[in-house]
Amino acid sequence: MRKRCVVVIEDEELIRRGIADALTAAGYQTLEAADGPTGLVEARRLGVDLVLLDLLLPGLDGLDVLTQLRQTHTHLPVIILTARGSEEDRVRGLRRGADDYVVKPFSARELLARVEAVLRRSGGRPPTIRGLTGPGAAVDFQRREVVFADGRRATLTEMESGVLLHLATNRGRTISREELLTHVWGISAESLETRAIDMHITRLRAKLAGEDREAGGEWVVTVRGQGYMLGPEVRAEAEPAEGGS
Ligand code: CA
Q1: From the CA of 92, how far away is ligand 1's center (Å)?
Q2: Domain match, 16 and 119 both
Q3: In terms of CB atoms within 10 Å, which of 75, 133, 153, 184 comes out highest?
Q4: Rg (CA), the chain
């Protein structure tokens, strides 16, 4: 089973390291960030299950990180790390979509209990899209398969499927090549030329198009100078609610 991934956004190094060590010992994978902007990038990586968020952070305040994160990740569990006595912060945090809070100083045991409780409540993952139906074909994310109207099939690579799923999860928003890199490849934009993304998109379109060369561009639309978007005619099929399939 995949290790669950927790992002720790905390500028005080001793606290951050302590949390990360406790989580690692408990079997979690961790990502660390010491300021708000980096924290936001880390929290938006593909495969992140939960975010621990300090409020007083350099660069971008914790509450602002939360607000921006909620614009793209409605269901990602967030636990706020707050100083004793700042009830107002806790209330504001919960109002802005935090799932829980822990008051500093806290024990590793208390923190782990909160993390487990929030992950249990959230089902451990956000609702996902099961498949897509678009021009001439349908996509099954579970099988990573394109099924054409005449029954022929094509298999998508993990990356192709990830790109398509990310576009579908963010329908109506233009996704930059940099965002695809950090979300689907889980790396920063500098470490791979963004041109590589274009090659993957070209291959993805060819697979989705099948015989009908035009259809690929209807699945994934280029927004000149900005990035890519899911085509307006592509429909998403949502994962059934808890307990389904
Ligand atoms: Ca702080």
Answers
A1: 17
A2: yes
A3: 184
A4: 20
